Amino acid sequence: QVQLVESGGGLVQAGGSLRLSCAASGRTFKLCQLAWFRQPPGKEREFVATVTWSGDSTYYADSVKGRFTISKDNASNTVYLQMNSLEREDTAVYYCAARSAATQSLVFSRWRFDSWGQGTQVTVSS
């Protein structure tokens, strides 16, 4: 079992910044990938950004490229999502997700992830 605990959401004005955190605990030795997804109101959950468990490789959705940065602190098993230049369209519940596999690689489908956090609300006002 892997537990993921998110924090850092809130209300911010358009153009502002927020940093989300996700602490992983439990059987983390099985993990190969961490990711952030988001679910805007009335829409499907969508991929935002991902990083390999080692922290070596990252990938972003086109909608956030250049504005968001994902990073991992290997000492604390915490993944961060630094969100800059926030737009109203970024309003969503943000979820941290983890995937277990034998080799480190990047996948982007939510169906491939084994563990999920409880979600944290990000609201961007104009």
Give a concise summary.
The chain is mostly beta strands. Helices cover 0% and strands 53% of the residues. It is built from no helices and 11 strands.
Label this structure with key terms.
126 residues, mainly beta, seven-stranded mixed beta sheet, four-stranded antiparallel beta sheet, 0% helix
Fold and architecture overview:
By secondary structure, this protein is mostly beta strands. It contains no helices and 11 strands. The mean pLDDT is 95.
What order do the helices and strands come in, and which of them pair?
Elements (H helix, E strand, L loop, with lengths): L1 E6 L2 E4 L4 E9 L4 E9 L6 E7 L5 E3 L7 E6 L4 E6 L8 E9 L14 E2 L3 E6 L1
Parallel strand pairs: 2-11
Antiparallel strand pairs: 1-3, 3-8, 4-5, 4-9, 5-6, 7-8, 9-10, 9-11
